[in-house]
Design goal:
about 475 residues, alpha+beta, Arc Repressor Mutant, subunit A, 3 domains, 9-stranded mixed beta sheet, 3-stranded antiparallel beta sheet, 15 helices, globular
C-alpha cells in the first residue's frame, strides 16, 4: 500500500516586545535566572493582568500577513493545567474567540505552489523554562532533577496552528522557512529556534494515498532546527506506516525526537481541549481592534517573502530565489543587479562567497559589489577573495582589486595544464567518456597550482581544448 503523510504544525513565536504580555517586567533572553519577575507573572494573589498593546497590534499584523480574518472581538481564556513552569496553575491564552482565523499561506515550491491553511493565530503568555539537570540529553528523560527559570513566564507568545495540509517533511520545512522569514521581516520577533523564540510541534498521521480520512495523530515536540523537524517527521511517518502495515493501530501520544539516535520516545498521552477546562479570563476585557487600526496595520505590510520568492524565481530559479529571500539577501541582490551585475553571477557570489566570508549584507555598497562580480574572472582568485572579505568595509572600492591582472598568457598556463592532466589520467579518461562535470575539477587544480593567479576563463578554454585534442 502507498501511504500519504498528513502533517499539521503548531508554531509558537515569542514576540520581542519590551515588556511581558500582562505585566511590566522586561522581556528578553539571557538575563540571570528568576530576575525578570513580579507578582503578576508569578501569579500572586490579588495581582491583576493588563494586556500589552504592542503585542495585540503585532498579532493583528501577523494575522494579516498570513491572510487571516481579523476577529472584531477576541477573548482571553484560562487554560488550566498543573506543571512547574506555570505558577498560576493556568495559562492566559485565547481559545474559542482568537484574534486571527481562517488564513492561508501560499508556499512556493520547486514543483509549483502549495497552499497551507491557517486555522488560527492567537495571543497567549509563555510558560517558564524548565532546566533539566543531569542525564545525557538535557531533557526530562534521564535527568537527575529539574530547575525552573521564571524569566520567560508571561512573555508575549503567538501560537499559529495550521490545517493538516502538509504532506512531506520537505513541505513542512519550506513552510517554516517562509513563515520565519515573514515574522523576522515584520519585526515582531527574532524567531531563533536555538534561543526558543521560535518553537515548533508537529502533528503527524498517515493515510492510504488517495484517501481523505484523518487517522490517529501523534505530536512531536522538542525539535530545535528545521532539519531536525524534517528528520523527526520522517521518523514518525516511518514508525506509523510500520505499525499500520503490521496490523497494529497508532496510539495518540506526545513524543520527543532524539537527534543523535533518530528515535522517538513517548512522553504522555496527547491532551485535548477538554483536558484544559477553558473558561473566559474574568480579569481581562475582550480585545476589539478598530477597523482603522486594522487598515493602518495592513498598510504597513511589506512585500511578503512568498511573493518575492515567486518574483525572483522567475528571473533566476526557485532554489536561488529561496536562498536569497530566506537568507535576507535579496535586497542586496536586486541592488547589485540594478548596478550592472549579471543576475545569476550576483546570486552565486552573494549566497556563497559573501555569506561564507561572514559579511553583513547591509554594510555592502551594491555598486562596488557589482564591479567585483563582473570583473571576478579577470583578476586572480586570491584578489577576488580578499575583496569579498573587505567589501563591507566603510569606503570600500573595487578598483584596486580589479587592477590586479590575472595570468591569461596561454604559453605560461599550458605547462601547468599539461602537468595537471598528466597527473590525473583516470579523471581524463572519465571526462572523455562523457563525465563533463570533471572540467571544473581540472580548472580548480590549475587555479590551486597557480595560487589563484590564473584567468579562470582562459584556463577553462585551455583545459577543454587539451581534453578534446586527446
Amino acid at each position: 500500500m502507498s501511504w500519504e503523510p498528513v502533517i499539521g504544525l503548531e508554531i509558537h513565536v515569542q514576540l520581542k516586545t519590551r515588556t511581558k504580555m500582562f505585566c511590566r517586567c522586561p522581556a528578553g533572553f539571557g538575563a540571570a535566572e528568576n530576575t525578570q519577575t513580579c507578582p503578576v507573572c508569578l501569579g500572586f494573589p490579588g495581582a491583576l493582568p493588563v494586556p500589552n498593546r504592542t503585542a495585540i497590534e503585532w498579532v493583528v499584523k501577523l494575522g494579516l500577513a498570513l491572510g487571516c480574518e481579523i476577529a472584531p472581538r477576541a477573548v482571553f481564556a484560562r487554560k488550566n493545567y498543573f506543571y512547574p513552569d506555570l505558577p498560576k496553575g493556568y495559562q492566559i491564552s485565547q481559545y474559542d474567540l482568537p484574534s486571527c482565523i481562517n488564513g492561508k499561506v501560499i508556499v512556493p515550491l520547486q514543483e509549483g505552489e502549495h497552499e497551507v491553511g491557517i486555522v488560527r493565530a492567537h495571543l497567549e503568555e509563555d510558560a517558564a523554562k524548565n532546566v533539566h539537570v543531569g542525564g545525557s540529553s538535557g531533557r526530562i528523560g534521564g535527568a537527575d532533577y529539574t530547575l525552573v527559570d521564571y524569566n520567560r513566564g508571561g512573555t508575549p507568545l503567538v501560537e499559529i496552528v495550521t490545517e493538516p495540509h502538509i504532506h512531506s517533511a520537505e513541505e513542512a520545512k519550506s513552510f517554516l522557512q517562509l513563515l520565519r522569514q515573514t515574522i523576522v521581516e515584520l519585526g515582531i520577533s527574532d524567531a531563533e529556534m536555538e534561543k526558543g523564540t521560535l518553537r515548533v510541534d508537529a502533528n503527524v498521521s498517515v493515510r492510504p494515498a488517495g484517501s481523505d480520512e484523518l487517522r490517529t495523530r501523534t505530536e512531536i515536540k522538542n525539535m530545535n532546527s528545521f532539519n531536525h523537524i524534517g528528520r523527526g517527521i520522517e521518523a514518525e511517518v516511518a514508525r506509523q506506516i510500520e505499525i499500520w502495515e503490521s496490523g497494529g493501530a497508532v496510539e495518540q501520544h506526545t513524543y520527543d525526537f532524539d537527534v543523535a539516535s533518530g528515535t522517538l520516545t513517548a512522553r504522555r498521552a496527547k491532551e485535548e481541549a477538554d483536558d484544559y477546562r477553558y473558561f473566559p479570563e474574568p480579569d481581562l476585557v475582550p480585545v476589539e481592534p478598530s477597523e482603522e487600526l486594522v487598515e493602518r496595520l495592513r498598510g504597513e505590510l511589506p512585500e511578503l517573502p512568498g511573493e518575492r520568492i515567486r518574483r525572483i524565481g522567475e528571473a533566476l530559479d526557485h532554489e536561488r530565489a529561496l536562498v536569497l529571500v530566506t537568507g535576507g539577501l535579496d535586497s542586496l541582490w536586486e541592488e547589485t543587479v540594478a548596478a550592472g551585475a549579471d543576475r545569476v553571477s550576483a546570486a552565486n557570489v552573494i549566497a556563497n562567497q559573501l555569506v561564507g566570508a561572514g559579511v553583513e549584507p547591509a554594510t555592502v555598497d551594491a555598486a562596488e559589489l557589482a564591479k567585483l562580480v563582473e570583473g571576478r574572472d579577470r583578476i586572480p582568485r586570491k584578489s577576488f577573495d580578499d575583496a569579498i572579505v573587505h567589501v563591507g568595509d566603510t569606503g570600500f572600492s573595487a578598483e584596486p582589486y580589479l587592477a590586479q591582472e590575472a595570468v591569461s598568457d596561454t604559453s605560461a598556463l599550458e605547462p601547468v595544464v599539461d602537468a595537471i592532466l598528466a597527473a590525473n589520467p583516470a579523471q581524463v579518461e572519465q571526462y572523455r567518456g562523457g563525465k563533463d562535470g570533471l572540467l571544473g575539477f581540472f580548472v580548480g587544480q590549475v587555479m590551486k597550482e597557480t595560487k589563484g593567479a590564473a584567468d579562470a576563463r582562459v584556463v577553462s578554454e585551455l583545459v577543454r581544448s587539451k581534453l578534446a585534442g586527446g
